[in-house]
Amino acid sequence: MSVFAIETQSSDTRARTGSLATAHGIVKTPVFMPVGTLGTVKALSPEEISACGAQIILGNTYHLYLRPGCDVIDIFAGLHGFMNWNAPILTDSGGFQIFSLAKMAKITTDGYAFQSHIDGSRHLISPEDAVDIQLRLNSDILMCLDQCISYPAEEKEAQGAHELTLDWASRCQKQIQARNPGQNLLFGIVQGGMYPHLRRLSARGLAELDFPGYAVGGLSVGEPVALMHEMARSTLPLLPENKPRYVMGVGRPEDLVEMTGFGVDMFDCVMPTRNARNGQLFTAFGKINISNAKFRTDTGPIEPGCTCYTCQNFSRAYLQHLYRTREILAYRLNTIHNIHYYTALMGQMRSAIEKDRFLTFRDDFYRKRHP
Amino acid sequence: MSVFAIETQSSDTRARTGSLATAHGIVKTPVFMPVGTLGTVKALSPEEISACGAQIILGNTYHLYLRPGCDVIDIFAGLHGFMNWNAPILTDSGGFQIFSLAKMAKITTDGYAFQSHIDGSRHLISPEDAVDIQLRLNSDILMCLDQCISYPAEEKEAQGAHELTLDWASRCQKQIQARNPGQNLLFGIVQGGMYPHLRRLSARGLAELDFPGYAVGGLSVGEPVALMHEMARSTLPLLPENKPRYVMGVGRPEDLVEMTGFGVDMFDCVMPTRNARNGQLFTAFGKINISNAKFRTDTGPIEPGCTCYTCQNFSRAYLQHLYRTREILAYRLNTIHNIHYYTALMGQMRSAIEKDRFLTFRDDFYRKRHP
């Protein structure tokens, strides 16, 4: 039985809507997943995450493994109970953050050895461990441990990373099967750097393993936007059509619109939450910086017509005051607006695809930004 | 017509319940007012402040005058509209914070000259200015500008401060009458250091001016607790019985219980909010520090039986994790609990007074803390 059902297929792009069944409910796709690194989408309560329209959040395995540690989360039978979030959770494998945050990270064919960026403690994580940790978090969607590389990377390095990632994918799959996890879904990750032929080999190898879903990893790592789009566009058709497809760590609203057109079903990015904490707010007309002097006496909401809690209750002048005085409420109200913006954008795209008007939506999206 | 009505008088203490009518609604007394320094009770939304049981909040005139400035708040016709809080607000006069925060503060018979602690800009605030600024904030309850002194202070200094404060009270009263403000209430402030005969003169002089309410200022400035209680206990009976009586900047739960017994009707203190941000949480059994190692795997709420949002939804283990990782949600969930604790304590006292069981309540209160 498939957990993913395509519901509408756009006639003139590869965009589609679907629904993904998880142990904690159905996710309507295409979907954006807010990042909840440490068991909290920064500044928001679980009720607010839902009220912003989020259906599923992402947790970071590396961070949660270090703090609070799996022994604490075990007591709550997983992350849902620990943070009081009863909807779906996807976790990354930890690989990307070991690569980017940990100290003295070393990769071998058997996994990652690294030291904690917090206290320097030494750890080893094999592909099997990555699955076990994510099962202890009781993630609805687990990711295979992958080898991340920098941009730019030599072909040889990219090839090695792809090969190791594919080998680990097979080991992760064996591990989750051995654990007999029930509804927890394990996704494979395509690597291969910016080399289309390596991405093709990676996608083909993963497809043979028959995962319930596939991710494109290794994008949004510093490459030009056009190259990122090209890599996503060319990789997507290599993945099984009837499975959910997730581009990791992407991105800007424009990236979400473009990649939805390529047939991507799932996205995550720290941009809406991180930018909110830096006073940068998303609107249909582009980004605004709330600390801009012109908003000092502005009684209007961030975005006229926006239905988020922040826009319904507070003015730009008040938000500027809170932000300038570094009040805690600023981070929360800004985050609410930005997450709402992202989830509303995905909702608009789902609706446009259902009406087979995706290209019209896309034109309107750009017209508002560049009138 | 009096804005304050005493509803119940305890038979064996001076404690009483009452109701205070303001332009933004009735306040049931005795009441605790959470501090909302900069137009926000730190970390909470207006709905959360209400849900915690707070009836009225305090704003700091000195801070709001500097940031965002009265010109911004004018556009919203006052602080209520600016921060979207539609219940009563009391503001201090700014005197205490000029005295404790501003740079180069100098006092003359005509007011305070000082430099902003933020940008060094120079300002002059006379008693009349203090009233005008608070009217621009549209405070429901304004405080007269007073001269604050350090502890300990020589009698001569305390006498001078009392005399100037009394003179300014008269000037503030004339100013508010000239402004014909309608329902905005101006309270006088008793000063006189730790000298009972000066406090008597101060109280008598203020009573002659016939304010709608009175505050005891200059307490909780570093004096021993017993002396603070003694000064409050001896000053309270000197103030008109039928007017609301407010002890400023106090205090610990024990202080609220003792002083309610002295006949105090109103309190404010940064303790519940500030301590929350330092991980210190109030319970009927005393304070706990959420970062204590013993809470790492504790699945229980902060306080069993507590009906606050935090206790209803989150464990000590999760709160410790959020606090240790300095997540924004930690400050908010801790603040919700502490404000709820303070307002629930006041509610329990109101209920006990109504049943004429205040001394029994007081005994129970101490028995739980020192079993």
From TrEMBL, chains A, B:
The record's top EC class is transferase
What cofactor does this one take?
Zn(2+)
From the UniProt record, list the reaction(s) this protein catalyses.
7-aminomethyl-7-carbaguanine + guanosine(34) in tRNA = 7-aminomethyl-7-carbaguanosine(34) in tRNA + guanine
Chain segments carrying region RNA binding: 249-255, 273-277
GO MF terms, alphabetically ordered: metal ion binding; tRNA-guanosine(34) queuine transglycosylase activity
Q: Which residues form the active site?
A: D92 (proton acceptor), D268 (nucleophile)
What does the Swiss-Prot or TrEMBL cofactor note state?
Binds 1 zinc ion per subunit.
Domain tRNA-guanine(15) transglycosylase-like: residue ranges: 13-370
Q: EC no.?
A: 2.4.2.29
Instruction: Report residues binding substrate.
Output: D92, S93, G94, G95, F96, D146, Q191, G218
Q: Which UniProt keywords apply?
A: Glycosyltransferase, Metal-binding, Queuosine biosynthesis, Transferase, tRNA processing, Zinc
GO CC terms for this protein?
A: cytosol
Q: In which pathway does it act?
A: tRNA modification; tRNA-queuosine biosynthesis
Give the protein family. Belongs to the queuine tRNA-ribosyltransferase family.
Subunit info here reads: Homodimer. Within each dimer, one monomer is responsible for RNA recognition and catalysis, while the other monomer binds to the replacement base PreQ1.
According to its UniProt entry, what is the function of this protein?
A: Catalyzes the base-exchange of a guanine (G) residue with the queuine precursor 7-aminomethyl-7-deazaguanine (PreQ1) at position 34 (anticodon wobble position) in tRNAs with GU(N) anticodons (tRNA-Asp, -Asn, -His and -Tyr). Catalysis occurs through a double-displacement mechanism. The nucleophile active site attacks the C1' of nucleotide 34 to detach the guanine base from the RNA, forming a covalent enzyme-RNA intermediate. The proton acceptor active site deprotonates the incoming PreQ1, allowing a nucleophilic attack on the C1' of the ribose to form the product.
Query: PANTHER family this protein is in?
Result: QUEUINE TRNA-RIBOSYLTRANSFERASE
Q: What protein name is recorded for this chain? A: Queuine tRNA-ribosyltransferase
Q: Which species is the source of this protein?
A: Desulfosalsimonas propionicica
